Structure formats: structure tokens, C-alpha cells
Amino acid sequence: RVLTYLAITFTILLAGTFILSKVDTGWGYEYIPYEENEYVEHHEPKYVFLIILDATRFDWLSTEGYDIETPNLQSLADDGIYYANTIANSYWTKPTMASLFTSVLPKDHRTNYYTTPLNEELPVLAEQFRNMGYYSIGVTNNPNLKTPQKYHRGFNNYTFLARGTLLPFVQQGPLLNRLAFTKRILSHRLYGNLPVFASGKATTEYSVNTIDYYRNNPLFAYIHYMDPHGPYYEHPYNGKSRHPRVEFTPEDSLERVTNLYKGELEYTDKWLGELIGYMKHSGIYDSSLIVLTADHGEEFFEHFCWSHIIALWDELIHVPLIIKPPFYENGGKVDTSLVQHLDIAPTMVEYAGGKPPDGWQGDNIFSPGYHNSSVISQCDGIYSIRSHKYKIMNTIPDYAEIRLSAPEFSHIDKRAVFPEENVFNLIDDPHEKNNLAETERGRQIMDSLIAASGVEELMIIPDVITEGGIELDEETIEQLKAIGYLD
Asked: Distance (Å, rounded) from C-alpha 368 to C-alpha 366?
């Protein structure tokens, strides 16, 4: 009889685990509260939103005429300004978000590794809004941005959303975290292909609840959607997915993977629409400054590589940007100015009546005479300088060979190797296939762009920025592996 009871109990637990594994509960999260700041006189807008769509290519959206259903993103663009030439300052999440939050280049914030936290000496975007009297909220589900990485600085509260769990309460104690982690690992072993991050549904629902609770205050909210990042799941969710970095070839999988990615973009757009719908229903949309961009793009074998792990090709650093000012009446504009992530923080702060701190390197996009003749993107061992017409991409010696020989990149097609010096005419060669570096004209372009950049330290030497790192916990390591960053 005891064995029968045990068998029944085990069956119920197993069935419950299976059911809840297939349902996006959105229960698990890490909540980091801060004391509420004193009210400081502020200026319009009353509500400011920074929305990040992870791993979203600029050219796979309806704003660029791509064959995709993203009506909510298109609606936001129709109400605001679409910036068609926006460049991220690096090619993956940690350095790009660090540049976006601190308005300095990767060479200066030096947050370019999994274990390097955001530089605590640099003033950050959320801190500026908090000092201006805004209640600052952060909602993310990217494991590169968990609180040990220090991206929560300046927020009144900052939440890392975990995927669904059996535990219907906040997992703050180490024992509860361990139980939840064990459950997820067990579920993965039993059923495979479970979502490795909180979905757009969970992100929107949590964000809406939090915004609604605090919306009587002047409010700054950063909201990060992870769904376009690999692995890509089928929607409605059925447990089936593909990851862009696993052992398949483009010939037999390119269409399958890109269709899944397209589905993730449409899924994210749906929940973006729910977020915007809440703003409109609650009456805060018109008075809100909304900035939507991506931390980086995604590569689909254009240069014999998947994902976003090695280079600064345009498919990785050219990102969407939409800005909807409050009470804006001239929506639907397309601006072709050359814009970079560094410019977003000072634009938001100055629009809200604040003054960007000394040391911020970006410029206010709305300021008279705003102009970038070129922009810089960097990561350890590689940099690019891009103008409207030309682009260079240079590396340390043997950069591509060294990267591709690392165990975590052993799956990459060896044709992904590229020279140490690269020059492209983006007008004639938008897909960066014809390297002009060995030509006289190419050398002239390279020298001219480097001289015009005005930056002495363009190359980040990898061993210079390994000090002061943090130790990643086991769960974060598993999460990073699951989304393709670690071996």
C-alpha cells in the first residue's frame, strides 16, 4: 500500500511538472528593491520607456518592408520617428547594453566579457532619471543582465524574470532557488526543449502590473524582450525549437531556422502590442516618450556564421530604432541620419529636461545640428568604423582563427574566418562581400575613417579587461549555455 501511495504521488508530481513545464507561468523572478527616492522637480514627459528587442535585425521588420506581420511595431513607428541607420556599439548584449546605459564606448566601459560587471564608476541612465524624480523600473530576462552584473544600478526596482517554475512564490532564498533550478533541469532532461527564458507574455504581464502599480509617479521603465534570441521556438508553444548554433548546415536548415526566427519576431510584436494597448487604455501613451531598439542583430549564415558571436558585420550591428515623443503629431517620419546607441541616453535625459553627466560621449538626436559622420563599434580584439557610405572592420592578429578555435565555437563553419583588415563600400556592396583592404582606394578609405574618428584607442586588447571579474553561479552558466554563449 505504501508503494502504491508513493507511486501515485510520484505520478501526480510528474504530471504536474509536465503540465507546468508546458505552461508559461512567469512565476519565478529575482526582485531587487531600492528605497524610494525623494521627489525632485521634473519636466515632461511624465512617462519614459526604453524597450529592447533582443537579437532583432533591422531588415527583418515591416518598417523595412520585410514580409512579416509586425503591426504593433509598425503602429509605433507610424506614431513616431523611425531611424533607418542606427548602429549598435558592439555585437552582443553585455557591451551594447553597457554602452546604451552609460553612453560610452566599449573601450571605456570595458564590460565585454561574461564575468565583467558594469563599471560602477560610470553614471548610468536609470540613475539620471531617478535623480530627476522618476521612479525607475527595470524588467529583463537576459542572464547577461542579472544583478551581479550591476546593470540594476540606478533603478528603484529591477527584476530578472525567470521562466516558469513549480514554485508559485518569489524565489529569494538559496534553498528555493536550488529547488526551482533542479526542477527546471529535471524537466529539461525529461521533456527537452523547454523555454530557457521568460516569454514575451510573461515580460508584458509583469511589466504592465508593475507600471500600473507605480504609474501615479513620474516613471522611467526599461523593458527587455528576449524572444527573438536563440533558441527559437514554435508558436503557439509546443516544445519544438531550433538553435542557430547547433550542428546543422545552412543547406538543410536555413529556411527552417529563419522561419522560426520570423515567428519569434511576430510573437514579440504581439506582446509589444499588449504593452502598448495597456498604455493607451490607461491613458499614458500620448504623454509617454517611448524609445524602442535592439541590443544587436542576428546573423543567418551571410558570412558563414550563425547567431552573434564573432564579428561586426552589419547584420549584427545595424539595428532598428523608433522614438515616439509625447503628444507627437508628425508620426510616420523616416530619418536617415547615422545614429548610434551612445546617443540614446543623452537624448532621453535631455528630452525629459535633464542634463547628461560629464563623460557621456553621445549626442542628443533632437539637438540642432545633430550629425554623426561616422560611428564606432567595438569588442575585445575587434572594432569597426562606419559612415553612411563606407565601413572598416579591423582585428588583432589572428583574431578570427583564435575565436574559431575556442571549444565553444568549434561548431562554426571555418569559412567564417575573415581577414584582419576589411574595407567595404556599403553603397555598392551592402552585404559586405567585396573587401577593398588590399586596394589603394581601400587604404585611403581606412586611413580617412581612422583619422576622422578622433579616437586614439580603437582596439581593445583582450587581456587588458579581464581584471575585476565576478564568478558566475551555476544557474547563470546553464542559462548562458542554453542560449548559446558558453560551451
From this structure: 7
68 vs 211: CA distance, rounded Å: 29
Residues 6+ apart with CB under 8 A from 268: 53, 56, 200, 225, 227, 228
pTM surpassing 0.90? Answer: no
The answer to whether the beta carbons of residues 207 and 199 sit under 8 Å apart is no
- Type of residue found at 189: R
The Cα-based distances of 223 to 111, 292, 322, 441 in angstroms read 21, 10, 15, 44
Please tell me the distance from the alpha carbon of residue 127 to that of residue 124, in angstroms, as a whole number: 5
Best CA proximity match to 228, nearest among 56, 96, 399: 56
The 3-state DSSP class for residue 320 equals: coil
Q: Are 422 and 408 in contact (CB under 8 A)?
A: no
What values do phi and psi take at 451, rounded to 5? -65, -40
Q: How far apart are CA 293 and CA 290, in angstroms?
A: 10
Distance CA 393, CA 407 (A): 24
Mean per-residue pLDDT, 72-79? 96
Phi, psi of 428 (to 5 degrees): -85, -25
Q: Per-residue pLDDT tens for 143-170?
A: 889 888 899 999 998 999 876 543 333 3
C-alpha cell at 184: 527546471
